[in-house]
Design a protein that fits this description.
The structure is a homotetramer. The termini of chain A are far apart. The first copy, chain A, has a six-stranded parallel β-sheet with strand order 3-2-1-4-5-6. In chain A, strands 7-8-9 form a three-stranded mixed β-sheet. Chain A contains 13 helices and nine strands. By secondary structure, chain A is of the alpha/beta class. Chain A has two domains: 2-163, Rossmann fold; 168-291, N-(1-d-carboxylethyl)-l-norvaline Dehydrogenase, domain 2 (Orthogonal Bundle), CATH 1.10.1040.10. At the A-B interface, strand 9, helix 9, helix 10, helix 11 and helix 12 of A face strand 9, helix 9, helix 10, helix 11 and helix 12 of B.
C-alpha cells in the first residue's frame, strides 16, 4: 500500500521502519534530513512537504510532538489537507488534547477526508518491537481500514469510539498512571521509613487491594522489580517530561469541561517540581526521589 | 486449644465463631452482653474481664476498634497482661498505629509474653467466610505458633517481619488504596465528561498502565463491575469512615517519622470532606460522587 | 482626545462612559448593538469594525473577555492592527495569559505600534466608580502616554515593567488571592467546628500573622464583615468563575515556564469543584461552603 | 506575688526573667539545672517538683514543649494538681491540641482549680522583649486575674473565650499563616520566573487583594523586606519545625471534629518535605526554596 508517513522522530521513525519491513511503499516527510536519508536507504521515498506526501498516499499517518505541529502539518498551505485525495483514510498517532483532535478531524471531514486519532502507548521500545498499543478514535468504518496497518506497528489495536476518544482514553489512563506512581512512591517510602522490608511490602501490596501496574510491574523502589527503570538508575522507560506533558493535557482537557481532577493537578505539580529540580530527564518513576532524604 | 478472645464487634464476633466451629474452647470478653450471650449459646465461656479471659487461655487474641482500647485492654489493672501466664503467645488483630503496637508488645515482652500484631483485610464478609488476610508482625517463632490458628479465620496469613510490621503493611497498602480509588474516580469522571464510554474506558485502563484493583475489581463508576458496591448504590463494602480511619493512621505514622505523604494527606482530606457531606456511611468508592454534578 | 474603544461588556461599557464624561471623543466597537446604541446616546461614535475604530483613534483601548478575542480583535483582517496609524499608542485592558500579551505586542511593534497590557482589578463596581487599579506593562514612554487617560477610569495606575508584566502582576496577585481565600475559609470553618466564636477568631487573625485581605476586608464567614459578599448571600463581588479563569491563567503560565504552583493548582481544582456543584455564579468567597455541612 | 513557674526553655526562661524584673517571687521547676541556677542568681527559688512549686504559688504558670509534657506536669504524682491549693488560678502557656487543654482544665476544675490556656505568639524575641501576644482561653473571672501578670510578659492579652479557645485561636491563625506563606512563595516565584521584578510585584500585591502578613511583613523573597529572615539567609525567626508542629496540631484537631482542611494538610506535607530535605532548622519562610531551581 502507498502510505504517507509524516513525523519521523523517536517514535515515528521505528514505526515507519516496521511498515517498510511489511512491504509498504512509504512517502516520508520530516524536517530532519538525517532520518529521511536513513529511511530512504531502507527504501522509503522522500517527499518535499506534508502536502506532497499526502498526495501520493492511499493512507496518511502522522506522528508529531504536540498539537501545534499537528495543526500545522494538517492545516497549513503545504499541509496534508492541501494534498490528500478525497476519500483517503488518515490517522494521527500524536498525543494531543481531544479538542484539537476533534477540530482537525472536523476540518478533514469538511473536505471528505476521514481522519481518526490513534495515540499510542508502549514507548520507543514498543515502537521498535512493533508492540505498541493504539487507542483509536474513529468511525467503525475507518477503524476497519486502519486496523490491519496499525497491527503491523502494534499489538493491541483498541477501538475507543468516535474521533477524539483515542486521545481521551490515553490522557485518562495516563492521569491515573501518574497518580498511581506517586501513590506507590509514598506507600513504599513510608513503609521503608517505618521499618518494613520494601520487598516484603511490595509483595503484600501486589497481592492486596493496593496492587497496580506502578507497583507490580514498574515499582519505583530500587531492586523490587529487576526489569524496572528503578533497577538501573531510572534511565530509559517513560520520561518524566512526557508524563508531565500528558498530565498537562489531562488537566487542560478537564478545565475545558469544568471537571475537577484534584489528585491529577497535584500530580502534575509534583512532576513540575521534579522538572524544576533538574530530574525531568529521568524515568517518571524517579518521582520517588521527592520522598527520600537527599 | 484454650483461646482467650477479647473484642467481639462486627469483626471479632464472626472470627470467634469460626474458632468455635474449629473446635477450640473460647474464653470471651466484651462490654456488649448480647454478643456474649450469643456466643455462649454456641459454646463459648464468658469471662469477667480481659484479665480473667487471658488467665485461662493458651493463646490470647484481641480485636478492638482503636489504639485507646488496645492500650486499655492490655495495660489496665484488669487487663490481659495482668492475667496472662508467662510464655503464652498473644496476637492483636486490631488496626492501630505501629508505634502503639510496638509499645504494647514491648510491655508484653517485659513480662515474658510474646505479643504480635496481625491486622486484617477482607471486611465483615471475609470475617464471616473465614477468608481474611492477616498481615502478621511477629518473631519467626511466634508466627509459627499463630499461623495455624489464624488460618482457621483467614485465607492469607502473611509474615511481614518483626512486631509492628503488620500494622505498617496494612496502613501502607490502604494509603495506596485510598489514593488509587480517588485516582480511578478522577480518570473515570474525566473520561465521561469528555465523552468516552465509561465501560470502554475501564476496559482500556484495565489492560494498560493505569490498571489497579480500584479499577479492575472495585471500579467506582456504576455498572462497570457488577459485583462492586457502585452497582448497588455504594452499600456494603469497605466503609468510607474506615478508609478515613486508616488514612488518619497512615498520615499520623508519617508525621512521627517526618515522612511526607502529599497525595495521602490529600486523600485523607477528601474523605474527610465526604464525611462532612454526610456520605461517610457509604462504601469508600462513593468518593466518586465528589466528581459528579449534584 | 480621539479614542478608539473596543469591547463594551460589563467592564468596558462603564469604562467608556467615564471617558465620555471626561470629554473625549470615542470611536466604539462591539458585537452587541444594544450597548453601542446606549453609548451613542451619550455621544459615542459607532464604528463598523475594530479596524475602522482604530483608524480614527489617537489612542486605542481594548477590553475583551479572553485571549482568543484579543487575538482576533488585533490580528484579524478587520482588526486593530489593520487600521491603526503608525505611532499610535494602544493598550489592552483584558486579562489574558502573559505570552499572548507579549505575542500581540510584538506583532504591533513590528508595524510601529506601541501596545501595552493593562489588566484591571476592582470589578464592575470599580469600573463604574472610576476607581479601578490598572497594572500596566509598557515601556516608560508608553506608560507616560497612557497614565493620564487610565487615571480617568481608575485610581491606582501602577507601572509593572515591560510589556506582559501587567498580566503577570495580575495573575500572581490573584493566584495568591485564591489561595488566601481558601486558607481563610479553612481557618474560620475549623475554628467554628472547634468551638471558638468566629467574630473573635477573625479579630485575632486580623491583628496577627494570619491577617490578609481575604480575612480583614472580605471575610467569607457570614456576618464577620458587614460589607462583604458573605453578609449578603455571596451575591455581587468577584465571581467564582472569574477567579477560576484567573487561576487557570496562572497555572497555564506556570506550566509554560515549568514553575510549580502546588497550592495554586489545588485552589484551581477546588474552584472547579465549586463550579461543578453549580455555585460558580456566587462570589468567590462562597468557596467556604465546601467546608460547611450541607 | 508568689508565682510558680514550670518549664524554663527558650520561651519560659525569658518569660520568667520578666516576671522577676517586675518584682514577683518565683518558685521555679525545670529538668535543666543550668537554667535553674541562672534564674536562682536573679532571685528565683528552686523547687524540687511541679508539686512543690505549685504548693507555694498564688498563681501557677506552665510553659512546656508538647501535650505529653503538659499532661505529665499537671497530672503525675509529683505534678501541679497534687500540690496546688484549691482556688489558686493557673495558666498553661504551652501550644498543644485543644482537646488535651480542655481535658486537663477539666481535671483541674474537678479539684477546684481554675486553669486556663494561653498559648503565645511572638517567638523568643518577643519573650525576651516582653512583647508576646497571649491568646487566652479562660472564664471571664480567671482572665481578669491573669491579665495583669500576662501583661508583664506580653503586649497583647486577648481573651478568646472559654478554656481551649486560646489553643484554637493559635492553631487556626497558624494554619492560615502556613498556607499564606506558601501562597506568597508560589506567587513570588511564579512572578520571577515569568519575568516581573520581584520588588515591584511585592509592592503591587501589598497594595492589592493578595496582601497579607507573609507578603508585606515577612516576604520570603530575599531582599524584598530588609528585616525579614529572607534577608539574612532564613536564620532566626519562626522555625520551620515549629510551623510543622502547629500544622500538625491543626490537622489533628480538624481530624477529631471531621473538619476538612485541604490546603492546611497540603501545607503540612510541604513543610514535612522541607524537613526531610534537611531544611527544618531554617525560618519557615524558607519554604520558598521548594519553588526555586537548585
Amino acid at each position: 500500500m502507498n502510505i504517507a508517513f509524516i513525523g519521523l522522530g523517536n517514535m515515528g521513525a521505528p514505526m515507519a521502519r516496521n511498515l517498510l519491513k511489511s512491504g509498504h511503499t512509504l512517502h516520508l516527510f520530516d524536517l530532519n534530513q538525517t532520518v529521511l536519508a536513513e529511511l530512504a536507504e531502507l527504501g522509503g521515498n522522500i517527499s518535499a512537504s506534508p502536502k506532497d506526501a499526502a498526495a501520493q498516499g492511499d493512507l496518511v499517518i502522522t506522528m508529531l510532538p504536540a498539537a501545534t505541529h499537528v495543526r500545522s502539518v494538517y492545516l497549513s498551505e503545504d499541509g496534508v489537507l492541501a494534498g490528500i485525495r478525497q476519500g483517503t483514510p488518515a490517522v494521527d498517532c500524536s498525543t494531543i488534547d481531544p479538542q484539537t483532535a476533534r477540530d482537525i478531524c472536523a476540518a478533514a471531514a469538511a473536505q471528505g477526508v476521514d481522519l481518526g486519532d490513534a495515540p499510542v502507548s508502549g514507548g520507543t521500545g514498543g515502537a521498535q518491537a512493533g508492540t505498541l498499543t493504539f487507542m483509536v478514535g474513529a468511525s467503525a468504518d475507518l477503524f476497519g481500514q486502519l486496523q490491519p496497518v496499525l497491527a503491523q506497528m502494534g499489538r493491541n489495536i483498541v477501538h475507543c469510539g468516535e474521533v477524539g476518544t483515542g486521545q481521551i482514553a490515553k490522557i485518562c489512563n495516563n492521569l491515573l498512571l501518574g497518580i498511581s506512581m506517586i501513590g506507590v512512591s509514598e506507600a513504599m517510602a513510608l513503609g521503608n521509613a517505618l521499618g518494613i522490608d520494601t520487598q516484603v511490602l511490595a509483595g503484600i501490596i501486589n497481592s492486596s487491594t493496593g496492587r497496580c501496574w506502578s507497583s507490580d510491574t514498574y515499582n519505583p523502589w530500587p531492586g523490587v522489580i529487576e526489569t524496572a527503570p528503578a533497577a538501573r538508575g531510572y534511565s530509559g522507560g517513560f520520561g518524566a517530561e512526557l508524563m508531565l506533558k500528558d498530565l498537562g493535557l489531562a488537566t487542560e482537557a478537564a478545565k475545558q469541561v469544568r471537571q475537577p481532577v484534584i489528585m491529577g493537578a497535584l500530580a502534575q505539580q509534583l512532576y513540575q517540581a521534579m522538572s524544576l529540580r533538574g530530574d525531568g530527564g529521568l524515568d517518571f518513576s524517579a518521582i520517588i526521589k521527592a520522598y527520600q532524604p537527599r
